[in-house]
Amino acid sequence: MCRLRGGSARLWAEGPVLAPAIALGEVATTLMLESRKETVIAIQGVCFDLYSTLVHEKQENPFYRDVAAELNLNLNRWMPAYRECHREAMLGRISGMFERVRRSVEGVGYQRPPEQVAAAVHQSWPKFLASIDVDPQTEALLDRLRGRGLPLALVSNASDHSEEIFQRLGLPKYFDVTVFSFRVQCLKPNPEIYQIALDGLALAPGQCAFVGDGGDRELFGARRIGLTTILVDRQLKHTDSARADADIVANDLVEVGAAIEERSAQA
User: Fold this and answer.
1) How far is CA 31 from CA 121, 136, 243, 260, in A?
2) How many other β-carbons are positioned within 10 Å of the β-carbon of residue 233?
3) What is the topology classification, in CATH, of domain 9-56+133-264?
4) What are the domain boundaries of the chain?
5) What's the pTM value of the predicted model, to 2 decimals?
């Protein structure tokens, strides 16, 4: 079961409570989009994934190389241990980048003083932040949807440093609800993490869409709870398998906006 850290889902709901309303209609999908539903429910809110959907991490993030050099680590030996901590960090069981680096360093048998680890992380942290960029189409899409009066939620499998990145990139202003897995202590595709966002938006699953790149089987979980699923085709390793759980496939965020506007027009 997901657990909220610091209170109820209302911690992340900053906008007005919207009364649920469902409208049914028939929509023919256009603009090079693939749709698997003949009868659709009007989209009245949208949940977004974060990484590889709205923002992207550069393929070569210098943070890891620099930390390994500063601590005299074998990068190829250390990185698998660092990655193994990923799930625990996203569940909030590992707090902060320092703790994740410290645990992974010790996990492969290195002994480094905590103050040395902390200094290495602190010194290289600006490079980590600089390695995350907003997709060029993100802000235009979010502005477009906000302009139509659609409430927006973020639902992200993420560790606590992602909240700092999210704020640094100026994205919180677009969202009525933000749900990070490290705060609620459960991960997509668990249906409960989507339900927390829906509760914050005061919408039923059938009134809302979920947009993501398909990682972590997020579209499977979203569709299972009843959300309309929109896959952003980023041509990643998991893209082909994610298509099976996509109601709509879009080539980019511009096409995402067109699909949502077409369906939200039925409200």
Assistant:
1) 45, 20, 17, 12
2) 18
3) Rossmann fold (3.40.50)
4) 9-56+133-264, 59-130
5) 0.84
Which residue's structure tokens are 């590992």?
94
Structure tokens at 179: 């749900």
Nearest-angstrom CA–CA distance, 221 and 192:
9
Contact 217, 189 (CB under 8 A): yes
pLDDT at 170: 97
Mean pLDDT in order along the chain per 10 residues (267 residues): 50 34 31 45 94 94 97 97 97 96 96 97 96 98 97 97 96 98 98 98 98 98 98 96 98 97 78
Give yes or no for a contact between 91 and 185, defined as CB atoms under 8 angstroms apart: yes
Question: Distances in Å between the alpha carbon of 219 and those of 38, 178, 228?
Answer: 19, 18, 9
- Non-local (6+) Cβ contacts of 31 within 8 A are 255, 258, 259
